[in-house]
Design a protein that fits this description.
- The complex is a heterodimer.
- By secondary structure, chain A is an alpha/beta fold.
- Helices cover 57% and strands 12% of the residues of chain A.
- Chain A has three domains: 2-214, no CATH class; 335-448 and 574-597, 3-Layer(aba) Sandwich (Rossmann fold); 452-570 and 600-637, Rossmann fold (3-Layer(aba) Sandwich), CATH 3.40.50.
- The longest helix of chain A has 27 residues, at 2-28.
- The model of chain A is unreliable at 327-332 and 646-656 (pLDDT under 50).
- Chain B is an alpha/beta fold.
- Chain B has helices spanning 46-54, 76-79, 100-108, 122-135, 152-165, 182-199, 210-215, 234-238, 242-256, 260-270, and strands spanning 3-12, 20-30, 35-40, 61-66, 69-70, 83-86, 170-174, 202-206, 219-224, 227-232.
- In chain B, a hairpin with a 7-residue loop joins strand 1 (3-12) and strand 2.
- In chain B, helix 3 (100-108) runs parallel beside helix 5 (152-165) and helix 5 packs parallel to helix 6.
- The chains are: A alpha/beta, B alpha/beta.
- The interface between A and B is medium-sized, with 23 and 35 residues.
- The structure holds adenosine-5'-diphosphate and magnesium ion.
- The site of magnesium ion has 2 residues of chain B, from helix 1.
Chain lengths: 656, 271
């Protein structure tokens, strides 16, 4: 129930965005991609103001205006300079990425401990389940919105907008500037999108730089579903159709997650669905002279095509759910553990492995005394929330969140079940308490910033005299801000070192960034934990080899990929630590009494081949300390076992 | 002068092998309440002339004055308060997905700011109904039907009504009956004359039929290859017959060395 109502509510909030797309797409035949940026802009502006102490309802018009400004720019450059609407949208969307980062000052603004429309509603909840209560209120809001938008579109101005798209020659003969009408339409549409952005941000509990990606396809899908529901030219029905379309789309996402569908596949399915509908509506147009064979065939068989699509989908769903059913059989006595992971990146997968393997060692067997349900959001931020709703509906007893984004989604939502987080750089900026012992009663976990100070200390012993070091980072990535702040703070204690920075916005910029640093006469690359840079590590290694500039990294995994020296956490042990905390909770301890733990194990690794090649002076003591080495092209690592101890230092009894 | 064109030239595809002079140094003055018909061979620049007056095509050289104001550089929508127009293609003048009433509303709001308010009230509907009655096509009972469901003749009639609903000073008509069957064409022509007379409008009507040119309006302009080759004032026009007009074309024939077959073709097209 919670899952479906939650999906419906999310659909309502996304409906504002779909209504924006409805205006640009139905009225002017423009698929306005600006909304990918203005959605985030609305969320960013509103979130920053809320953090600043603004009332969560007062920020709504501001977010509307922010989105509207973005739309105005698109409309203006599209009409004034006759730039294709798609290109104009792409230009503005691209520019908005930087604007959004500047507005937020970081890549993610949590609203966890700030008032949102949700907290305001909770206060006046007459005793209904939270999501149901929100759903009821949203139904009233959406009815108002429906009436308001219908009235607007039926007014003199709305009809003139319709006429502008329908017959521009006629309406300009009636003294209307079609350019101005288009600008107005695109502005209004993006205003609605901005409003949708802040509503979704308040609902999911944070604004994030990536939250708008793919919006145009989702909202086009909603508009198209709406058109299929209610045909004809009755405005009030079309508007209702779009709202329903947005809800249906979100429900479909919930269904997909429920049966363990990969959200990445959902993207191509959505794209296919939109494509199919567009192809069919194209083939249905009468006024085209070209009546090619293929067109006529599509036209004749359009119902068959939809049916095939639906059958293929249902078949896939059925197979998936059968597969899932057979792999897990629900029964009451087992502990249900739900794992939410933000994406497929290496460190998150290692954390997951650490958790699962340690759980097995602690005596938990899937299907015997526990059920583990793991869902990956595959990088899609709103999916984290739907996954959480889904796990709640699945009667999960204990939640494990891996990554900051998933943790944010869970702690915003789950207040009465224990939550353990792992591989989070800083739980406090997510709003999860103020210190390792002072935290929400149902939450505990393991965290840590990469130990950049120690890395710098090692580097300074190897490089005497004044030196420059270079670092590369993506300011658009969660946690990077924390790590960069650490680096900047720590480097002050080494007055001999000066820092050269290069920021990137994607993996394909890393090579150039590394080259620009190399030209600045740096002695070493110091890589803080940044997923973008690690994903493009090969680029840095190339420059490193060409210029003989060694790489020092805060991530243990960089060693066998070309770094000279690594000092960093092993995320596997983060998972192990989380598993032990989960074990304590399952045995009856309250998470309130379990302090947050820092990652317990840091690994030092040295590439001896590179030391020799660069003729570097590495103290023997350091080499002896190294747990991992590369020598003669071979990677080797000393075995490490995390000692089993509780926080009070007593050995832990395992179930075995 | 209601319409004054001074030394207007329009070129298309400038600088390419396809360069054409659609209008060559044209000057023309039309007084208030004058009804001028324009005839001429295909491609002689009649539509271009109307487009220059309406602002849909900007003249490369020359000046356009409407109602005494220089409007040479104004886009079409900024001229709509003085002029309205009806196109040859019935599809071009109405919004097909909007109802007849909504289309009329768009014309009713010509030259007014369009606010988010509801002007289409009962009173206005009654007015539209009365005006539709004048068309004698039974459209007053179909006001909520989409304009796209109307026949070509009905659409042209509605378009004509839209053009004169907010009385303009100037009405431009470009072969607006050419696409209709003879009976409907006659009906639309009758309406045209009636609306122009009733509103004392200054009208510029392009026609493909010399008969129509003689029957309607007070002055005839003949165009050829982007130039006005003959400007027949009211007095002279009254004495003119179709044969006389053809005689004028015959002169061109001699100048242009048209073959008799081409002339025959021409007559078929124009009479
Ligand atoms: N948009 C255009 N692009 C290129 N040539 C054009 C365009 N419009 C008209 N022409 C050319 O200009 C000339 C005059 O056209 P037009 O005014 O439509 O003639 P008429 O209406 O008298 O038949 C023709 O040779 C035509 O091919
Ligand atoms: Mg023409």
């Amino acid at each position: 129930m919670e899952l479906w109502v939650g999906a419906m509510n999310l659909g309502f909030l996304y409906a504002f965005m779909a209504l924006g797309t409805f205006i640009t797409y139905r009225y002017f035949n423009i698929a306005d991609i600006t909304i990918d940026g203005s959605f985030t802009l609305g969320a960013a502006t509103g979130a920053i103001l809320i953090v600043d102490g603004w009332n969560p309802f007062l920020v709504l018009p501001v977010s509307f205006l922010a989105g509207a400004c973005a739309g105005f720019v698109t409309g203006f450059i599209h009409t004034r300079f006759k730039i294709d609407s798609l290109l104009a949208g792409i230009l503005v969307m691209t520019g908005l990425y930087s604007v959004n980062l500047h507005v937020m000052g970081r890549s993610n603004v949590p609203l966890m401990n700030h008032p949102t429309f949700e907290t305001a509603l909770t206060r006046i909840n007459p005793g209904l389940p939270q999501e149901v209560w929100i759903g009821l209120v949203l139904i009233i809001v959406m009815t108002l919105m429906w009436a308001l938008l219908t009235a607007f579109l039926k007014s003199d101005l709305g009809l003139t907008m319709l006429a502008t798209g329908n017959n521009p020659v006629m309406i300009s003969a009636q003294g209307v500037s079609t350019d101005r009408m288009k600008i107005l339409g695109i502005t209004l549409a993006n205003g609605l999108v901005g409003l949708s952005g802040i509503l979704v941000a308040q609902y999911q509990g944070f604004a994030d730089i990536g939250m708008g990606i793919g919006s145009i396809i989702y909202s086009l899908a909603a508009v198209i579903i709406g058109q299929a529901l209610f045909r004809g030219r009755k405005v009030w029905l079309s508007v209702l159709g779009v709202i329903c379309g947005a809800v249906i789309f979100r429900l479909a996402v919930a269904v997909a997650l429920k049966i363990g569908f990969n959200p990445n596949d959902l993207k191509i399915l959505t794209a296919l669905f939109v494509l199919l509908t567009l192809v069919i509506s194209y083939s249905l147009k009468n006024d085209q002279k070209d009546n090619g064979k293929m067109r006529m065939w599509i036209r004749k068989n359009r119902r068959l095509l939809f049916a095939l699509f639906a059958i293929a989908l249902l078949g896939w769903f059925a197979w998936k759910s059968f597969y899932n059913q057979s792999s897990q059989d629900h029964s009451a006595k087992k502990t249900r553990i739900g794992i939410v992971i933000a994406n497929q990146s290496d460190l998150l997968m290692k954390t997951r492995d650490g958790f699962r393997e340690e759980m097995t060692r602690l005596g938990y067997k899937e299907g015997v005394n526990c059920e583990i349900h793991e869902v990956n959001a595959e990088g899609d931020i709103p999916s984290n929330k739907t996954i959480v709703d889904h796990l709640i509906a699945d009667h999960t007893d204990l939640f494990l969140s891996i990554s900051s984004a998933s943790t944010q989604a869970i702690i915003n939502k789950v207040k009465d079940k224990p939550v353990v987080f792992a591989t989070v750089a800083d739980p406090f900026i997510l709003g999860a308490g103020s210190s390792p012992v002072n935290h929400p009663a149902n939450v505990t976990g393991t965290y840590g910033h990469a130990p950049v100070g120690e890395l710098l200390r090692i580097l300074s012993t190897m490089y005497p005299g004044p030196r420059r070091i270079g670092t590369i980072y993506n300011p658009g990535f969660p946690n990077t801000k924390v790590n960069l702040g650490d680096l900047k703070r720590e480097i002050k204690t080494f007055p001999r070192l000066t820092l050269e920075e290069a920021s990137v916005s994607g993996t394909n910029e890393v090579l150039q960034a590394a080259q620009s640093l190399a030209s600045k006469n740096i002695c070493a690359f110091v890589l803080i934990n940044d997923l973008t840079v690690f994903n493009a590590l090969e680029s840095v290694v190339r420059v490193s080899k060409a210029h003989k500039i060694p790489i020092f990294a805060n991530d243990a995994d960089c060693l066998d990929k070309g770094a000279l020296l690594v000092y960093g956490y092993e995320y596997y042990t983060s998972g192990v630590q989380a598993a032990r905390m989960a074990d304590r909770i399952i045995r009856g301890e309250s998470p309130a009494n379990i302090p947050y733990e820092r990652f317990a194990h840091t690994l030092l690794g040295i590439n001896k081949d590179l030391v020799r090649e660069y003729r570097l002076n590495v103290p023997d003591s350091l080499v002896k300390r190294a747990e991992a080495t590369v020598s003669g092209g071979k990677y080797s690592k000393k075995a490490y076992k995390l000692p089993l101890r509780t926080s009070s230092g007593k050995p832990v009894q395992t179930q075995k | 002068m209601m319409i004054a064109l001074k030394n207007i030239s329009v070129r298309f595809n400038t600088g390419t092998v396809d360069e054409v002079f659609a209008l060559k140094n044209i000057s023309l003055e039309i007084g208030g309440s004058e009804f001028v018909t324009v005839i001429g061979t295909n491609g002689s620049g009649k539509s271009t002339l109307l487009n220059v007056v309406a602002g849909n095509i900007m003249a490369d050289e020359g000046q356009v004055l409407l109602n005494g104001r220089d409007m040479t550089r104004l886009p079409s929508f900024r001229r709509a308060d003085v002029l309205s127009r009806v196109f040859q293609n019935p599809y071009m003048s109405t919004a097909p997905d909007m109802s007849i009433a909504e289309n009329l509303l768009m014309a009713w709001l010509r030259g007014k700011t369009r606010y988010p308010r509801f002007s289409l009230n009962k009173k206005l509907m009654a007015l539209f109904s009365d005006r539709l009655l004048e068309l004698e096509m039974g459209l007053e009972s179909r006001m909520h039907n989409a304009a796209g469901t109307l026949s070509g003749g009905q659409r042209q009639a509605v378009t004509l009504l839209m053009a004169v609903l907010q009385k303009p000073k100037i009405l431009l008509l470009d072969e607006h009956t050419a696409a209709l069957d003879p009976k409907t064409a006659a009906q639309v022509s009758k309406l045209t004359t009636r609306f122009i007379d009733a509103g004392q409008l200054t009208a510029l009507m392009v026609t493909h039929s010399m008969k129509q040119a003689l029957e309607m309006g007070s002055r005839i302009i003949m165009m050829h290859k982007g130039q006005i080759i003959s400007d027949i004032p009211a007095k002279e026009k009254e004495l003119l017959s179709v044969e006389d007009l053809l005689g004028k074309f015959d002169k061109i024939r001699k100048k242009e060395k048209l073959t008799p077959e081409m002339l025959a073709n021409f007559v078929r097209q124009y009479v």
